[in-house]
Specification:
The protein is of the alpha/beta class and about 325 residues long. It folds into two domains: about 190 residues, inorganic pyrophosphatase (n-terminal core) (Alpha-Beta Complex), CATH 3.90.1640.10; about 120 residues, Diaminopimelate Epimerase, Chain A, domain 1, CATH 3.10.310. It is about 40% helix and about 20% strand. The strands form two sheets. It has a six-stranded parallel sheet with strand order 3-2-1-4-5-6. It has a six-stranded mixed sheet with strand order 7-8-9-10-12-11, with helices on both faces. Helix 3 links the parallel strand 4 and strand 5. The protein is globular. The two termini are about 30 Å apart.
Length: about 325
Amino acid sequence: MKDKVLNEIIDKIKSSKSFFITSHIHGDGDSLGSELAIYILLKILNKNVIIVNNEIPVQTYSFLPKFNVIKNKVDKRKYDVAIVLDCTDSHRAGKSKEMIDNADYVINIDHHISNVYFGDINWVKPAISSTSQIIYDLFEKLGIMNKNIALCLYTGISTDTGNFTYDNTTGDTHKIVSHLMEYKINPSIVYEKMHSTCTPLDLIFIGKTISFLKFDSKKKICWAVLANWAERDYDLTEVIFSTMRLVKDVEVLLLFKEVSNNKVRINLRSTLDVDVNKVAKFFGGGGHKKASGVTIKGSLNIVEKKVIAYIKKNTNTYKNKIL
């Protein structure tokens, strides 16, 4: 099946002239890495290609090759193929959805379990660590690889495996990374570019956040409530989660972030077998079994109570499985 879908994608790439690439809003290392890797590939194949996202990505990822080609202005032209990467639903592409809908053909490549299979071709593999790991097979099949592509794919895989610490990291993941490393990727530099972003004020903010963590009575759920969350050129979310993960026996971690008046962004993480994707999906979001997100309209206080109550009621008394 993998070869059939992959061959269909390759045939479509070879037979088409113009391409539009996009991904989900608020791009991360995997979405941006996979986008730029595909962009470089299509340029090598002498195709007409652009990347348009909902917004200009944060400068954290400006070390990625061709970073500056990413635009956020919707192009009214009609493209032969839209390649949508790391995106569960075309609506998650934000304003770029207009260009997806206008394309003659849509290729959907993703690794989220909540993907709704919106493409004409759907290469969706929830068991794989990242979209960047999925598309590695495309480069292998075409026999095209260079240092720039390798850096993009490495960054994407590294991001979505938590620097190879999450349990979605498999032997195949390491084999692929081993090959990418042959192109003189420097892991310490990639890590520093992505993670050494905090200012002294950020550390003070993180310290205050950790000081006011909340727990349920069983100490299985840990969460933080953050009023007036300020957008930055980098995201402190994973930095805060990395500290929260140090708490013994906690199974579900959440950040409630007030992103605007009457709108709360919730990031969910699982340390064991709790399926937080099902929690997010119930409220209209989605993602992965162990990492998901959702945005809910409502006051911070009401949204917090509603989500925590749902988790308490639907997690089999926190014994590792969402019912």
